[in-house]
Amino acid sequence: MGAVTGRTAAPKQARSRVTRRHLLEAAVSCLAEQGWAGSTVSVVAERAGVSRGAAQYHFPTREDLFTAAVEFVAEERSAALRDLFHAGPAPRAAVVGALVDLYTGSLFRAALQLWVAACNEEQLRPRVTELEARVGRETHRIAVELLGADESAPGVRETVQGLLDMARGLGLANLLTDDSARRDRVVAQWAAVIDTALPPATA
């Protein structure tokens, strides 16, 4: 009897994971396209192809759903960034370009909508602040690793953070118009600056 129950539970858990993933992906898409005001749990559930009740089973509140969604996709993007450079430090121009790309897609648009909403939603603000700090620390750590930078050297940490701040600014500039031509020139210049400013990490 226990074996039958175990076999029954496995497909159920797999379906639950798939449903959760669909909800998270739909939530990010909704935030990026419709903003916080237009992204209700009902809208996300419909886009994900599940009932509102199923959505609330996985995420009891709207805040739970959207903070989890942005965190989920941030983790996915971090993993994708690592996969691009799985052998460790890479040509710095390629790393700078990949880091900038993190801020020019749907994830950044969704995160920005969440930040704006957090300015006015008291219960959302601490969760978004904590999430942004955690994602920021992880992105900084990955950048240091991929750039092969030695953070024990003076100014290196600030230079890497400046690169990430610049990437975020380019993402903002890209929200209203296609800024790719200017962005490519800025990325090339920053790659040259990084090569000059960052000593390689010591073995």
Set down the secondary structure blueprint.
Blueprint: H1 2-34, H2 41-48, H3 52-58, H4 62-84, H5 92-101, H6 106-120, H7 125-147, H8 156-173, H9 180-197
Helix pairs in contact: 1-2, 1-4, 1-6, 2-3, 4-6, 4-7, 5-8, 5-9, 6-7, 7-8, 8-9
Count the E strands. Answer: 0
Q: Approximately how much beta-strand content do the residues carry?
A: under 5%
Shape: elongated
Task: Extract low-pLDDT stretches.
Answer: none
SSE pattern = HHHHHHHHH
Secondary structural class: mainly alpha
Count of helical regions:
9
Can you characterise this structure?
Helix content is 76%, strand content 0%. The N and C termini lie far apart (56 Å). It is mainly α and 203 residues long. The protein is elongated. Helix 2 (41-48) crosses helix 3 (52-58).
Compact overview of the structure:
The chain is an all-alpha fold. The protein is built from nine helices and no strands.
